[in-house]
Design brief:
single chain; 205 residues; alpha+beta; Glutaredoxin; two-stranded antiparallel sheet; 11 strands; 23% strand
């Protein structure tokens, strides 16, 4: 089930990707305690919420279409050179290790690069990690709205003079949402498949 798809970019993309990873680690470190404790300066922290996006067939999909299943949500992009495919590989490995319990989970890959990640592109990308994975994309406004609900950071970072010469810095967190659509807990994206599977077993009960 493991795969490492994704277009390759210019050599300096690795440098920018590394910078993005470091930024993501800082973001996770700053927000992790708040998420786990469930409280911020103004009360409970709200993570996740309604979204309207498009699946790989161009069909409009909302968060309500996944009710009754746990959602394991990850925001990334298909041109991501290492962090995204590494994380999704680990999730694919975790799904294998969960056995029948994996049928209760829908891993969702939500693109933060609507310019390049068309429905057809995210469909092919998500499918490379397994049939359980669903790739979602949308207009810049739709993606921005979904990212806001999940408190996801992302920003384009130019890598050259062309219109497609850019990487996307983004926070790297897996969000476990319950069958009722409510946020349960963040799952660290830098873990192995074994660790992710163990965490999911505990969180799902």
């Amino acid at each position: 089930m493991n795969a490492t798809p994704g277009p390759k970019g210019p050599p300096n993309r690795i440098l920018y990707a590394t910078m993005g990873v470091l930024l993501a680690v800082l973001l996770i470190g700053a927000g992790g305690f708040l998420w786990l404790s469930g409280n911020g300066a103004n009360g409970p922290i709200s993570i996740g919420g309604p979204f309207t996006l498009q699946d790989g067939n161009g069909k409009t999909v909302t968060d309500r279409d996944f009710r009754g299943k746990y959602m394991l949500v990850y925001f990334g992009y298909t041109f991501c050179p290492d962090v995204c495919p590494t994380t999704l590989n680990a999730v694919a490995d975790a799904m294998d290790k969960l056995g029948p319990a994996a049928g209760r989970i829908r891993p969702l890959f939500i693109s933060v690069d609507p310019k390049r990640d068309t429905p057809a592109v995210v469909k092919q990308y998500a499918a490379a990690f397994g049939p359980e994975f669903t790739g979602l994309t949308g207009t810049p406004q739709e993606i921005a709205a979904a990212a806001k609900e999940y408190r996801v950071y992302y920003a384009d970072h130019p890598t050259g003079p062309g219109t497609d010469d850019y990487s996307v810095d983004h926070s790297s967190v897996l969000y476990l949402m319950g069958p009722d659509g409510r946020f349960i807990a963040p799952v660290r994206a830098d873990q192995s498949g074994d660790q992710i599977a163990a965490n999911l077993k505990k969180l799902m009960g």
